[in-house]
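Query structure, 277 tokens:
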């Protein structure tokens, strides 16, 4: 996969060169390029922002540097020359080719989920436009929509100082799903959100530690009982911490034992789906 990020703080993204994603880049599984928005300015002060039309607090990111930066990204990702993007001649991609995805992190976007991470991991390229201040002039997104599949995405219902931290989270969540990035692909199967439930608790040696014991079932060697216990823990945890994940969930895979636990947790099955009892 090829990923391009545009930011006024390219150094913010440096940690993406570490650990598993760093290795993925060394191994050629992922190409990550970070572009400095200020390189696409032409004035002495390398200005990227200006006051908002209509008044109000803060500054808004100017459209011109963004168009040049995103034109460069589009050229790198699709081979369309940036000059033709600049004068609008490039138009829609030829032959019904899919538009490259451009993610614009914003607290006003659709909330990022594991399902979205899986969807994005199927794309050949991803571009990210990190806004700062009060955001990017809206016309940049309108214009970019002629060339990209533009998706405003939020990390959650809180406000960050800019898109960089959100991009780090999204690139890590997507990057680890690329084939070969996580050494043991089985670890991607049994983790929180992979099946709509939170992950079960995990333990390692010693079996007894400061008066706290590892649950006996995990020492039993009985794989059937262990799997049953883990699923029950997932249901209990999800009901306690994120009950909204259970409401409306597909319950067709749950047998008698799980349904009894769910009843105890205040959920029942109706038409194959879970609902609050
Ligand atoms: N930029 C500022 N806040 C954000 C958030 N919650 N998600 C994504 N990008 C942001």
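Result returned for the query:
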């Amino acid at each position: 996969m090829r990923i391009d990020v545009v930011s006024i703080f390219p150094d913010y993204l440096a940690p993406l060169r570490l650990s598993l994603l760093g290795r993925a880049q060394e191994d050629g599984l992922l190409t990550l390029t970070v572009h400095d928005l200020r390189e696409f300015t032409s004035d002495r002060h390398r200005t990227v922002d200006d006051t908002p039309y209509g008044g109000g607090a803060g500054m808004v990111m100017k459209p011109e540097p963004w168009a040049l930066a995103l034109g460069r990204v589009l050229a790198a990702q699709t081979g369309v020359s940036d000059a033709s993007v600049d004068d609008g001649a490039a138009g829609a991609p030829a032959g019904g080719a899919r538009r490259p995805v451009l993610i614009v992190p914003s607290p006003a976007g659709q909330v990022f989920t594991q399902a979205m991470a899986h969807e994005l991991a199927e794309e050949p390229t991803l571009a990210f436009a990190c806004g700062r201040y009060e955001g990017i002039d809206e016309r940049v997104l309108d214009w970019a929509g002629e060339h990209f599949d533009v998706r405003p995405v939020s990390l959650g219902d809180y406000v960050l100082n800019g898109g960089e931290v959100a991009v780090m989270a999204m690139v890590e969540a997507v990057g680890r799903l690329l084939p070969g990035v996580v050494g043991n692909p089985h670890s991607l199967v049994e983790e929180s959100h992979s099946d709509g439930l939170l992950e079960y608790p995990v333990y390692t040696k010693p079996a007894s530690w400061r008066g706290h014991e590892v649950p006996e079932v995990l020492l039993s060697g009985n794989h059937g009982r262990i799997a049953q216990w883990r699923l029950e823990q997932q249901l209990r945890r999800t009901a306690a911490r994120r009950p909204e994940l259970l409401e409306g969930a597909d319950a067709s895979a749950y047998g008698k034992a799980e349904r009894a636990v769910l009843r105890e947790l205040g959920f029942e099955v109706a038409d194959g789906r879970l609902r609050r009892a």
